[in-house]
Amino acid sequence: MALASRILSNSKQLHAGQFLLQRKHAVPVRFFAKEAARPALKGDEMLKNIFLEVKKKFETAMGILRKEKITIDPDDPAAVSQYAKVMKTVREKADMFSESQRIQYTIQTRTQGIPDARTYLLTLKEIRIKRGLSDDLGAEAMMMDALEKVEKELKKPLMRNDKKGMGLLVAEFDKINKKLGIRKEDLPKYEEQLEHKIAKAQLEELKKDALEAMETQKKREEFKDEEMVDVKSIDIRNFI
């Protein structure tokens, strides 16, 4: 149960500076469609539907985890890749967001209606910090410098509906992307790397939890003479 709950939660071991540099954070239409077409419901009925939807996703995830072999070895690239593959299957079958899609959706919803470029960039920074993301590339400082340059040229704050001004800012962002070696066509690769880091972080957490559980059990009188098993040999399917 703990594993499935962990899958349904967010991971914070990410590096997403490259995603924040993109001018448009497009979210697939199906993710908006989920929320858009729902009829107005009474409170009790709405809560019931939410519960049933979460229950369905949980049962779907559990069904997959009961079948797939997971090796708790965050130091083995093959084990991490297999775990990432299983998690991808869970997300697809249970119709759940990937972490990058969560980031994209959060940006889309949080920045909708923001009129000026400065507030938009500050909101991106706030989202990054709240999600525990790091800006190892220094992208935010570069973007703010670019905005300062454009606003100085315009001699006024840059509004997002100012096509000419936004064109100048996008051109500056393109220069930053080029300087950092970030290409739009490489975004799928960045997403894969992101999910791989998440998989490794989750396996590390699972390993830690398993070791702590075994240490606790060994302190009990009936298990004090038992040898601890290798975490890598544990078959999670036996505990679900």
From TrEMBL:
Coiled-coil portions: 189-220
Superkingdom to which the source organism belongs: Eukaryota
GO terms, biological process: pollen development
Pfam families membership: Mt_ATP_synt
Keywords: Coiled coil
Keyword Translocase appears in the UniProt entry: no
Alphabetical list of InterPro entries matching this protein: MGP1 (IPR031432)
Keyword Coiled coil: yes
PANTHER family: ATP SYNTHASE 24 KDA SUBUNIT, MITOCHONDRIAL-RELATED
Record's protein name: ATP synthase 24 kDa subunit, mitochondrial
Native species: Nyssa sinensis
Record lineage: Eukaryota, Viridiplantae, Streptophyta, Embryophyta, Tracheophyta
